[in-house]
Amino acid sequence: MKNNNEEQSRSLFGISLSDRPKWQQFLICSSGFFFGYLVNGVCEEYVYNRLKFSYGWYFTFIQGWVYLALIYLQGFTTKQMVNPWKTYVKLSAVLMGSHGLTKGSLAFLNYPAQLMFKSTKVLPVMIMGAFIPGLRRKYPPHEYVSALLLVVGLILFTLADANTSPNFSILGVVMVSGALIMDSFLGNFQEAIFTMNPDTTQMEMLFCSTVVGLPFLIPPMLLTGELFKAWTSCSQHPYVYGVLVFEAMATFIGQVSVLSLIAIFGAATTAMITTARKAVTLLLSYLIFTKPLTEQHGTGLILISMGIVLKMIPENKSVPRSLPKKKELTSAKDENQRNEEEEERRPLV
């Protein structure tokens, strides 16, 4: 299945990926992802912590409409769909729930603390992959160790951040943990869709997820009264809509790029890339908004780096070791068969 997925013709905003080597595919997709979400991170920090606007459901709703407009400009239509609508109902519910909880948690956590919590999703993504139909992935022990190192580093950083920032509460931790569980299911389910139906495009998945997911945002906005509060606040500061639209456009680039990474490299590898992006966004947040860094922050970042290195190095070494042995065994068997055939033919001559 994986081979079919990799052989499928894919492109990213007009740039062909299928006829390029893996490292170029990785570089192009990662660049689009980093650009989109670095801009997203700066915009969210500005809107939530500087303007004190914490309307996660409403902002996600606005973002969804911007997505649909951009997808329409890309020329996608429902005639190009290869999956039934019901495939995207569960996916959309999880996607919108994750977005809403992530954005809403910023009202109770400062942005770097939220980022570090969300970065721990590498481990649950790996665990969840073993239970998703169509994947049933198994990972070697060293990859779980690398994920644990990553998680410990993130926890250290979060605890240090809790000591230096007053914007930290248990409710925020509960909200971001719920988003974390949803994300672990989301990435694996998206990979399963790409794997079971390689003709699925990034635009189809993003379009259907958004269309089906937007109605899920209306009940929480009405029940919490956020719809009217956000409408009133943004009407008094209309320039916020400009920031939201700009953020959504950048996030759109990042979202399509991350779907390309999931389709080509899988959910677990993509989770590692998103972790690296979160670390970069975090450092930028501290540099741009001049927040204090402590020794505990540094220790956490070192452990994060160790986890990423441990994840990547064994993968590069393990593949080339096993393949030559199989080839040697195969060639040895072929030679023995040839010698036996020659011996059988000699008496007949």
TrEMBL record:
Protein name as it appears in the record: UDP-galactose/UDP-glucose transporter 2-like
Organism classification: Eukaryota, Viridiplantae, Streptophyta, Embryophyta, Tracheophyta
Gene Ontology molecular function terms on file: 3'-phosphoadenosine 5'-phosphosulfate transmembrane transporter activity; antiporter activity
Keywords of the record: Antiport, Membrane, Transmembrane, Transmembrane helix, Transport
Source species, domain of life: Eukaryota
Species this protein is from: Tagetes erecta
Membrane spanning residue stretches: 23-43, 55-75, 115-132, 144-162, 168-186, 206-223, 243-268
UniProt similarity note: Belongs to the nucleotide-sugar transporter family. UDP-galactose:UMP antiporter (TC 2.A.7.11) subfamily.
Subcellular compartments: Membrane
Matching SUPFAM superfamilies: Multidrug resistance efflux transporter EmrE (SSF103481)
Sequence segments annotated as region (Disordered): 320-349
Biased composition, class Basic and acidic residues, residue ranges: 325-349
Membrane topology qualifier: Multi-pass membrane protein
InterPro entries attached to this UniProt entry: EmrE-like, SCL35B1-4/HUT1
Entry keyword Nucleotide-binding: no
GO CC terms in record: endoplasmic reticulum membrane; Golgi membrane
